[in-house]
Amino acid sequence: MDNELPGLIDQFLEYLEIEKNCSKLTLRDYRHYLQVFSDWFSSTLPGKSIEDIDLATIRKYRVFLANKQNEKGETLVRVTQNYYVIALRSFLRFLIKNDFKTLEPSKIDLPRTESRSLKFLEKDQVDRLVTSCDTSKEEGLRDRAILELLFSTGLRVSELVSLNHEQVNLERREFGVIGKGRKLRIVFVSDRAADWVKRYLNVRKDNFKPLFIRYSGKVDEFGSGEKMRLTARSVERIVKKYVRRARIPVDATVHTLRHSFATDLLRNGADLRSVQEMLGHKNIATTQIYTHITNPQLREIHKHFHSGNK
């Protein structure tokens, strides 16, 4: 294997694609993060190789990241800076696994970042959101079906827009999706969500393959309808539109509905492991972000022991 950084990065990306089964989106992000490091390394330390990477190099790179600006001319937030360093650590781990001499990645610490607030909607807010759609029109029926399905399944936006007709079994109220890391899981559809998806499909006169299609722009009359598939960005805009229309005091997104799905299950007695499976989380630690807002025992302890309660 060759010691040139760009060539090694390509080999690492091939490893992620073939052996780790990473998604195209993950590969794109890693390519970007490591290309930034490669460009910085070759311009800042010309003539140096991967064997010369040490903690002093990493400190200089982190100073560079702290001052790096995005396309809007804003400096990168700490969380984004960490993504670059996480990608670099994974790359170094790959190199060591393949017997290259370089910095041990475990020596690179990641600074703590502030926890992002966990936004979710209460049940009455979800009801206001979904009922704000004008279901007298086909587009409104589609939007209602999208919102109901998101809250019913906890799907990620990428998972939702990739759905096809034949994939969704509305009679059994379940279907399979391939999520992050190409991991397959089963999701379940509530009676209400299944009803609205059926209503939407019943008014569709096309034979397009995608479950959710767009209603603007040129119609793809002769293809499978792939060009008619609704995009992730369009779904985000749809959610924002109805959040404003329903006057919900939360800056809700598709991911907020995913949080709301998990919170609703836990509040109603579901166990954490089951919710982990339904969300498609690889680690239980990821699902545990919900426990501090859904643990009724903590609420009772506060109510019973805090002096401010009567």
Number of domains: 2
- Report the biggest beta sheet as strand number plus sense, adding barrel if it closes: 2 strands, antiparallel
The run of helices and strands is: HHHHHHHEEHHHHHHH
Ranges where pLDDT stays below 50 over 5 or more residues in a row are none
Q: CATH superfamily assignment of the largest domain?
A: Intergrase catalytic core
- Helix fraction by DSSP (H/I, runs of at least 4): 40-55%
The residue-averaged pLDDT reads: 88
The number of distinct helices, counting runs of at least 4 residues, comes to 14
Structural class of the helices, strands and pairings?
A: mainly alpha
Output the radius of gyration. 23 Å
Provide tags for this entry.
310 residues, mainly alpha, DNA polymerase, domain 1, hpI Integrase, Chain A, 2 domains, two-stranded antiparallel sheet, 14 helices
